[in-house]
Amino acid sequence: MSFKGYVIRPFDPWRSRLCTCPPKYSFDPYTGCEHGCLYCYASSYIKDFYNCRPKKDLLKNVRRDLKRIPIDSLISMSNSSDPYTPMEARLRLTRACLKEFVNHRIRLLIITKGVIVLRDIDLLKRLRCAVTMTITTLDKALSKRLEPHAPTPNMRLNALSTLSASDIPVGMRLDPIIPFLNDDRIEELLKEAKNAGVRHIVASTFKPRYDSWRRMADEFPEEMDKLGRLFKMGERIGRSWYLPREFRFKLMKNVAEICKRLGLTFACCREGFPQLHTAKTCDGSHLIG
Ligand code: SF4
């Protein structure tokens, strides 16, 4: 079946052989994103990425596409943008889509950095859903440089607490881990996540493409100089650069062990180490009731 022109499509992470995600649909209410994360790889395949705009005829197309997919389908929102990008506060398009999902008994996995998600708790309670919030550091100043227009790490942690207190299952994406920048306070961050009600962690190392590497090198020249030497010993997989396999394994194993100590489940994203996973799904969709 062709999904050309559809807004809800089968999730296809560039046919990555390292992806361990369960079958699911992918949906982005917006094209591009306003959060401006320097490490974001979506800018390498979406034109004019930082000029965020709503999808054309979004609601009409969502209604059409929902008729084509089975009731109870799993939708992941969003993989190449953020459904709670700042303009969502004004446009309320993600909210309108949630109302459609409620009527279609969709299972929904939300991936976001946006605390606007709290506005929609009433609808999330009516859906079978889970929210995974990406938090890369506890350091507000570092986050401001890395993710200039995203809510602060504390705001995101507070949002997780509120969601969890509202009986909405929550996970956290520690994604990406960038050696020399945010790999030093991982245990502290995971403890905060645990206190906020997080049950599952998805971790991933920085896998730059040309444009994300350039943005990072402009902002963090010294650190990227050191990191660049490590990448030279790594490998190229698809269109991304990967750190050396042993280095990545050590990093992921360390996070997995911290998670185990804290009673959190763990998985990594497109790293090639499924043996470290301790949950039924890597992406956190098992959290959905
Ligand atoms: S929030 Fe996600 S999609 Fe948006 S810029 Fe950051 S990494 Fe990219």
Q: What does this 3D model show about the protein?
A:
With 289 residues, the chain is of the alpha/beta class. It has one domain: Aldolase class I (TIM Barrel), CATH 3.20.20. 35% of the residues lie in helices and 18% in strands. The chain contains ten helices and twelve strands. It has helices spanning 58-68, 88-91, 93-103, 121-124, 140-146, 153-165, 186-195, 210-219, 221-232, 245-262, and strands at residues 8-10, 25-27, 30-31, 53-54, 74-77, 107-112, 128-134, 170-177, 200-205, 235-237, 240-242, 265-268. The protein has an eight-stranded mixed beta sheet. The chain has a two-stranded antiparallel ribbon with strand order 3-4. The protein is globular. The two termini are 29 Å apart. The model has no long low-confidence stretch (mean pLDDT 96). The structure holds iron/sulfur cluster. Residues 33, 35-37, 40, 42, 81-82, 113, 147, 150 line the site of iron/sulfur cluster.
